[in-house]
Write a structure and sequence with these properties.
Length: 648
């Protein structure tokens, strides 16, 4: 056996420099090879500007003398093969720049890292975990995500819940605590803030240094594999927040990796991300494409994740620091290449763009001229609705278009409606505390807002704590205020939210035609004076409809007329003002029979009670013909989803 046996092939190197080596993690980093009774560890790194590369590690006292890498090609790929299985070894690359500067760098492709504040990479073997999520993978492959209800629970692993001593839960403890709670809440997916290795806790993972290194804050790679495996076995998808646009500038990371600008743009204005104090990836470099796209496939392969929420897409579409004025064609090419490659490997992967721009066709397939994302966050809807809700009710008529504007573009993309962590931190207040008015009014308006979110076209995302009405904004160093469940209104809000999710998931009109105009129709969009909005949500069946009425004022209304498209009887399946939700019981106790008079442009109407700060959802009582015990035909009236004698 010779060292040459373990060297990268010319073809691998060619693909890497071309930007198409999408398993570059198999080439770079630290890998252990077995041959008979002998073991070898190979280290490989891309450092095109380096004068010299050495291995500095725990067994040579962090002095690279005698552990020099061999330069394989003029493009700067370096390799070192040592005899022995070095699993568990702590190491860095000692890089000597062209100017003689000595840099100690963590491995860009390192699979694991020391616990912060230490920064060395760890030689780690990711093979061997026994997965038990085969049924989940088969089920996921059969589903069409666009036709399925989706309610995502966005979580920061470090502050959802902590141990009694204030330390972090590890990934296994996190799984055992979080999964039953999320299932009870009816959520379909968990979305985790970034889990790549990062130096600073309060960056929440958005300023990463180790893109292939699962953060050691919460345990080992096997621990996180257990977390994902348990989620899948319980029917929950796992989405990772992922940041391919910019990276942390700490000395041991990617910044000036070999004494020059290797992973980042060379020009200062393109390179420096002044908002976050980070450096922008040079998306014009093919090697960076290999690095980042391989990284997405890496998390899919080794950790079985189901999707990525791609952070700060606007910072990729447009040149950094250009204020959205100059399109970055390198960034566009990267996004198209990323989404196309990911979906070639797994068509069911959820690629979600956190994009605040109006760039067109973000969720259109690449082959049809789009960027190829599965979904896009509807940031416009989120900003407009929060602006509207934070307005005192008596002045909301002046902002009526904040509610209606989203429907001018609601079906132009596959949207997710987000109330994310960004809206409940840094002095912005929690969602509950954004609502104006006294204690009761805050809860009533939050119930209304969450109900309107569920009724509005688009999949849903909610940041942790909102489901029970966290009063304080998110405190990233502390756990959620779980003691609030001891208070009646918070407990009732949580009961309401869970019932809301149940209705959403079992009502096809609320999700089946989410991304087409066929799934939505206004009843009354012009009641500016009373701040009441009414509309129809439709399923693929012509008879499958829901009537939604939202009152954003604090006045209740009796015998309020609402136009409906079909004759018959309508029954209330949700009223946010029900007492068991914390409301005042302004609800429609009996089924509502249509009146054969046109109203709101519809051939019939019903007269109903409209609660203050409330949402009401009506479902037509269907009729079906059956044979009775005597063989004669009889008619049974029933409301789908309603238990006899109880409000759904």
């Amino acid at each position: 056996m010779t060292v040459k046996t373990f060297l990268p092939t010319e073809y691998e190197l060619y693909l890497f420099h071309e930007g198409t080596l999408f398993e570059s993690y198999q080439l770079f980093g630290a890998h252990i090879f077995e041959e008979g009774d002998r073991s070898f560890t190979r280290f490989c790194v891309w450092a095109p500007h380096a004068k010299e590369v050495n291995l500095a590690c725990d067994f040579n006292n962090w002095n690279g003398n005698g552990y020099a890498f061999h330069k394989l090609n003029k493009e700067g790929v370096w390799v070192l093969v040592l005899e022995g299985n070095l699993e568990g070894c702590l190491y860095k690359y000692e890089i000597i720049s062209q100017d003689g500067e000595r840099l100690l760098k963590a491995d860009p492709y390192g699979f694991y890292s020391e616990l912060r504040p230490r920064t060395a990479s760890v030689v780690y073997n990711l093979e061997g975990y026994k997965w038990n999520d085969q049924a989940w993978k088969r089920k996921k492959a059969r589903k069409s995500a666009a036709a399925e209800p989706m309610v995502i629970y966005e979580v920061h692993a470090g502050s959802w819940k902590k141990k009694p001593d204030g330390s972090f839960l590890n990934y296994r403890e996190f799984a055992d605590e979080l999964i039953p709670y999320v299932l009870d809440g009816g959520f379909t997916h968990v979305e985790l803030l970034p889990l790549v290795e990062h130096p600073l806790d309060i960056s929440w993972g958005y300023q990463g240094v180790g893109y292939y290194s699962l953060t050691s804050r919460y345990g080992t790679p096997e621990d996180f594999m257990y977390f994902v495996d348990q989620c899948h076995q319980n029917g929950l998808g796992v989405i990772l927040d992922w940041v391919p646009g910019h990276f942390c500038k700490d000395a041991h990371g990617l910044y000036r990796f070999d004494g020059d600008y290797t992973y980042e743009y060379k020009a200062t204005n393109d390179r420096e991300n002044h908002v976050w104090g980070t450096a922008n990836f040079d998306l014009g470099k093919s090697e960076v494409h290999s690095f980042l796209i391989s990284n997405a496939l890496f998390w899919m392969k080794y950790y079985h994740v189901d999707g990525f929420r791609v952070d700060a897409v606007s910072n990729i579409i447009f040149w950094p620091n250009s204020n959205g004025e100059h399109v970055n064609t390198f960034g566009l090419d990267f996004l198209k290449n990323l989404n196309k490659t990911v979906h070639q490997h797994d068509p069911s992967m959820l690629m979600i763009a956190e994009d605040s721009t109006d760039w067109p066709q973000v969720t259109v397939p690449v082959e049809h001229g789009g960027l190829g994302f599965s979904y896009k966050w509807n940031m416009g809807w989120m900003n407009d609705m929060l602006s509207y809700m934070e307005t005192e009710p008596e002045y909301r008529s002046s902002k009526h278009n904040k509610v209606t504007f989203s429907f001018l573009y609601a079906f132009s993309e596959n949207f997710i409606l987000p109330f994310s962590h960004d809206e409940v931190v840094h002095g912005k207040k929690s969602l509950l505390n954004k609502m104006p008015g006294d204690y009761w009014r805050k809860f009533a308006q939050l119930r209304l807002l969450l109900g309107y979110m569920m009724a509005h076209p688009g999949q849903k995302l909610l940041f942790m704590g909102t489901e029970f009405g966290q009063f304080a904004e998110w405190k990233d160093k502390e756990e959620l205020d779980w003691n609030l469940f001891e208070y009646e209104m918070h407990e009732k809000l949580n009961v309401y939210f869970k019932q809301l999710v149940k209705i959403y998931k079992r009502s096809k009109p609320l999700y089946e035609l989410d991304h087409t105009y066929e799934g939505f129709e206004w009843i009354d969009v012009n009641n500016i004076e009373q701040s009441v909005f009414s509309f129809i949500r439709k399923g693929s069946s012509l008879d499958d409809i829901l009537i939604v009425v939202c009152n954003f004022s604090e006045r209740p209304y009796e015998k309020y007329k609402v136009g409906v498209p079909k004759e018959g009887t309508y029954r209330e399946i949700l009223n946010s003002d029900a007492h068991h939700f914390g409301g005042a019981d302004n609800y429609n106790k009996k089924a509502l029979k249509t009146i054969a008079e046109p109203y709101h442009g519809k051939p019939y109407h019903v007269e109903m009670t409209i609660p203050p700060f409330g949402i009401t959802i009506l479902r037509p009582v269907k009729q079906r013909k059956e044979l009775g015990d005597n063989g004669k035909e009889k008619v049974r009236r029933h409301a789908v989803g309603r238990r006899k004698g109880k409000q759904a």
